[in-house]
Design brief:
- The chain is mainly alpha-helical.
- Among the domains are: 43 residues, no CATH class; 59 residues.
- 44% of the residues lie in helices and 8% in strands.
- Strands 1-2 form a two-stranded parallel sheet.
- Strand 1, helix 2 and strand 2 form a beta-alpha-beta unit.
- Helix 3 packs across helix 5.
- The chain is elongated.
- The N and C termini lie far apart (51 Å).
């Protein structure tokens, strides 16, 4: 395991050949060469810290920023990402559309629960909970809306 600036990240810092988003060792060495950069700037979005968030939630971030400043010698700058306020709405729309699309195969004929009745409607009514049914309906609407 490599020496990482943040303890506990050892597992996350290793290459996983089964994870296509994991960085391979040869690419990691390329990034290690750039650690000696004189000036590294990291932007922290101000929208990620609404006034409603409890002050105790900021403590871990402050520790991480201090560690970055002292050990890695970076400049921390505030940035604005105005579209952040729309992220939750986008998430629910996309997640519902994915749920609808992915759960379409669970019709009780090939996959999923099969009720004693003969119809797909009965299998889905009995096999899915209320929250799943709600997401399927919202996702289907999102996928068909213009």
């Amino acid at each position: 395991m490599q020496n990482v600036p943040f303890p506990g990240l050892g597992t996350l810092n290793e290459h996983d050949p089964n994870d296509p988003t994991s960085i391979r060792p040869e690419h990691r060495q390329l990034s290690d060469r750039h650690r000696g950069l004189k000036k590294l700037r990291i932007g922290v979005p101000v929208e990620c810290f609404p006034s409603e968030l409890s002050q105790s939630s900021f403590a871990p971030l402050r520790r991480a920023v201090s560690k970055l400043r002292s050990e890695v010698h970076v400049e921390i700058v505030s940035v604005s990402v105005p579209s952040t306020t729309k992220a939750l709405s986008a998430y629910y729309t996309i997640a519902s559309a994915e749920a609808s699309s992915n759960l379409a195969r669970y019709d009780g004929i090939r996959y999923g629960f099969r009720s004693e009745g003969e119809t797909v409607e009965q299998s889905r009514t009995e096999g899915f909970g209320d929250e799943v049914k709600k997401r399927i309906i919202l996702g289907t609407y999102a996928l068909t809306a213009e």
